[in-house]
Amino acid sequence: MESLKQKIGWQLSDIGIELLGNWTEAYVIDLARYLIGTGSVALILFGLCRKFSERRRIQQRRAKPTDVKRELRYSLQTIAVYATVALFTMEAIERGWTKLYLDSEAHGTWYLVLSIAMLLIFHDTYFYWIHRLLHLPSLYRRFHRTHHMSVTPTVWAAYSFSVGEAFLMTIFVPLIILVLPVHPIALFTFLAIMILRNAMGHSGVEFHHRGWIDSKLDLFTTVTHHDLHHQKFNGNYGLYFTWWDRLMGTELPEYREEFKRITAGNSTDINSKAAHSTSLNQFRLAVLLGLLFICAGFSEMTIQAQAGTQINPAFSGYWVMPDASALLEIYAVEDADEFRIRIVSVRDPIFTTADAGAPIGASRVDLNNPDTHLQSRPLDGLVIGENFNEDDGRLVDGRLYDPVSGSHYRARMELTDDGLLKVRGYLGISMLGRTMYWHPARPLAERVERMFDGLDTEN
User: Fold this and answer.
1) Residues whose CB is less than 8 angstroms from the CB of residue 131 and which lie 6 or more positions away in sequence, other chains included
2) 288: exposed, middle or buried (C-beta count within 10 Å: 0-12, 13-18, 19+)?
């Protein structure tokens, strides 16, 4: 028998492997977000719209290759910090400490849209005051000086932070979802806007229309607004909006004049060799990083395709939901090379007065399905899981349907050491989801089989 020390050692090893896997997944996801956001801005401005971008250059100075290398190096470091904080965020979500919700109908579509606007407003407020705080001399040297090494920033400076500043930038998300109900769609949209706006603000190209600051759109910042902050080091602290700078008197007085000069196309060296070389280098870098990212993704797909689907009998069989509300069966479909899940039976097969809007006394059907044509399907025998493939001892890449909410999720499953089935359902990425543990029903099934065998013997 294994000693207690050995068992604890194995458990700690398993926990470490799981944490490393989660950390790696978080790192890859945020790296992809960074590369897609910054790379797309670079491709558009310095590839498709190069001539326009040269006319709208804010600074005559050009970033050097060493500047870009430094920005990329610190950005990769920042992503590591983001991935580490993501582990704690995942744990908070798992324990139900946050207000992240998966059912899109829980708060309605209007709230989902409104929550995106609230995230941007709250983030801009958080960013403004943290940004001002980081410009205090004692904090600037320790935290913010790294970012301001980019006097002429490029799109790659979007994540160019010290470890301390990276931590302050990333904790906004776990803090806000502690108090604000947020759906993953709203969170993904917010994060996409954040990286795109960040990359645009560091691009050094004023692409906004020249009438921008004389219209109602002036409440939004421009590239010139943030570029001047990098040039002057103080003032223009806002990220998305100009209202905090104007309310607190921190908007640089030359901002409007400089914006008008740039948007008039008065760049003095648009035909210079240095200008052309800088734009071409940024375009080439964006293409190179994009190709590397695509190749990495293609390689992963190829490996998975070559691995194929293995039919592991350990997953097949009967399982009970955590609340014992349903008996499920996982079975292999060899012709389709996949595992599927169906409801064998539900604990309460008849609608009762507790089921709002349901026909009392009728057999349970898929009443909450968003497709009205499917709402008459009986729950008994309903297939709720499809496309699960085995990979490294887990069932992955599956689709799981929840009849209670009528929602579909991506899902993965794995067996635990104590014989339970750990089921992770999520939207988009596995970090944003919930986990439940299904209990094996084999002992119950065996007892029932023995009971029937006994009856047959007596007859």
Assistant:
1) 237, 239
2) exposed
- Cβ contact 46:53 at 8 Å: yes
Q: What's the angle, vertex CA 68, arms to CA 62 and CA 70, rounded to 5?
A: 130
Report the alpha-carbon distance of residue 205 to residue 207 in Å, rounded. 6
pLDDT at residue 374 tops 80: yes
Q: Which residue has the higher pLDDT, 77 or 414?
A: 77
What is the structure's pLDDT at 7?
Answer: 46
**Cα Rg, the chain, nearest whole Å:** 28
Tell me the mean pLDDT in the region 30-55: 88
Q: Which amino acid is present at 134?
A: L
How far is it, in rounded angstroms, from Cα 48 to Cα 42? Answer: 9
Looking at 46-163, which runs of residues are DSSP E strands? none
**Cα separation of 202 and 196, whole Å?**
10
